[in-house]
Amino acid sequence: MNNEQRGQEALQELDRALRGRDRAEKTKPLLVVFMAAAAILILVGGIVYAATRDGADTVAEDSNELPTPEVLAMSRETPLDNTVTCEYPDNGEAAKAVSKPQTKDVPATGTTTVTLNTNQGAIGMELDRSVSPCTVNAIAHLAKEKFYDDTVCHRMTGGGALNVLQCGDPSGNGSGGPGFTLPDEYPTDSPEGEDTQVIYPRGSIAMGNTGTPNTGGSQFFLNYQDSTLAPTYTYFGQINEQGLETLDKIAEKGIEGGALDGAPAEEVRIQTATVS
């Protein structure tokens, strides 16, 4: 190739380069727009995905309502030994003089009947030693020693999740006890006690407490309708049919002042408590 040919080739290369640069300059804005649009689409797509994902989680979370409480089983899954040892630690001054129950070889089978003979009628209670033997042992002991005689059922609740008549305090104001405490038993000491809420069914009997473990004393509550509670109240028996009729009569009269929680509208006094 001579110099003239080389010159022509160089001019052609320069021309091609210039045309290529022009095309690049002309298409550059389009590329920028395209790339910007693509970036926006990616961003929007990400936002839509995130929003959709978050929305799905929210729906799932919103649809996970609290489980409906189950009715507390009236028996243990695993039976206790035939006898147990109980502890009843001292706890302040007794509202009424009484001795402590026996602590060794306490029966953990069978039932004991305690009848509350009230001014409103009899309330028979079938106490189940197989579920809460230390509690039944203590309640029967207190009844035998006339701890409950001539005492009022000081509290009644209704119109909501708690429907009970509470008894067992000789002082009559909810602060009194026997001078010792009872251990928590069923369902607190069993796997059933792991649930957050359970239904203590109509007719069931459970121990009151102060809200901390092992603080039961002499006070108990009678469920005249289902009550939804944490499973931290020792269940220990059932009210018989006659007792439920008496409770229904008491409940129909309502609560003092039309309240949802307070003293019964008409006094309920335990005249005697007998064990059979």
Automatic annotation (TrEMBL):
It is an enzyme of class 5 (isomerase). Keywords: Isomerase, Membrane, Transmembrane, Transmembrane helix. Its EC number is 5.2.1.8. It comes from the Bacteria. PROSITE patterns: CSA_PPIASE_2. Pfam families: Pro_isomerase. One of its GO terms (molecular function) is peptidyl-prolyl cis-trans isomerase activity. Residues 117-275 form the PPIase cyclophilin-type domain. The chain crosses the membrane at residues 29-51. PPIases accelerate the folding of proteins. It catalyzes the cis-trans isomerization of proline imidic peptide bonds in oligopeptides. This is Peptidyl-prolyl cis-trans isomerase B. The gene is cypB.
